Amino acid sequence: MRVDLLSGWLAILVGAIGVTVMGPAPIAAAEPASPMPPLQVPVDMADGLQRATVVLDSYSYTPHHLIVRAGKPVELLLTSITSITPHNFVLKDEAAGLSIERDVRAGKTVTVQFTPTKPGTYSFYCDKKLLFLPSHRDKGMEGTLEVR
Ligand SMILES: [Cu+2]
Question: Is residue 4 a part of any domain in this protein?
Fold first, then answer.
């Protein structure tokens, strides 16, 4: 009886080790798939504008992190690639003098110009939503404007 009991425990032990060895490797905090690096917005030599195109999709901005210089005008071409869903671009920070809210209908491109004066990190986002549903911002449609 004692031998049976012992071999039973051994079987369980071996089984447990087997599972540990054979099981899938533990996945440590999965990183997001190839995150896009911040875009240092180039200055157009012809007109001095810091110009970039930002693609709006459901529910994202690409690139979602832009770096610009303070005191120089910025021009963003907001290009929607959706076929139905309207989006917008909201960038507001009273202390920094930023107050932009522009609708971007499906498939359209609109241009916004502004001159950031105060270095800092500001969020832009889409606040569109359907009744009772989370806003697009809640679904991840958000980005960062870094003013240096
Ligand atoms: Cu949206």
Answer: no
CATH number of the domain where residue 98 is located: 2.60.40.420
Angle, CA 109 vertex, CA 103 and CA 112 arms, to 5°: 65
- For 76-105, what is each residue's pLDDT tens digit? 999 999 999 999 999 999 999 999 999 999
Task: Examine residue 100 and state whether it is found in any structural domain, yes or no.
Answer: yes
Give distance in angstroms: CA of 19 to centre of ligand 1: 46
For the entire predicted model, the pTM comes to 0.76
The answer to whether position 123 is within a domain reads yes
Per residue in 14-51, pLDDT tens? 444 444 445 455 555 555 556 789 999 999 999 999 99
> 129 C-alpha to center of ligand 1: Å?
7
Distance, in Å, from the CA atom of 6 to the CA atom of 9, rounded to the nearest integer, reads: 5
Q: How many domains does the chain have?
A: 1
Instruction: Compute the distance from residue 72 Cα to the ligand 1 centre, in Å.
Output: 28
> Distance (Å, rounded) from C-alpha 100 to C-alpha 93?
9
In a domain, 20, yes or no: no
